[in-house]
Amino acid sequence: LKCSEPERLEYEAYKESLHYQASMYESTYVVGHIDGKKEGKIEEKQAIAKSMLAENLPLELIIKLTGLTEEEIQNL
Description:
The structure is a single chain. Helix content is 83%, strand content 0%. The chain is built from 3 helices and no strands. It is rod-shaped. 3% of the residues are buried.
C-alpha cells in the first residue's frame, strides 16, 4: 500500500482486529453450535431409549438401536 507509516500501522492494527473478531466468533458460536448439536443428539437417543424401556423392549435391543451403553440406559 502506498500510505504513510502511521496509516500503514493503523491498517495493520485494523486487520489484526478483524482476525481476532473472526476467531472469537468461531470459537463462541461455531464450536458452541457443534457442541449443542452433539448434546441434542444424545438427548434424543435418551428419549428414544426411555420410550423403548416403557415398551419393555429387551435391553440388548435398546443398546443396539440407540448406541447408548447399558449403564447410560439404566441411569435414565
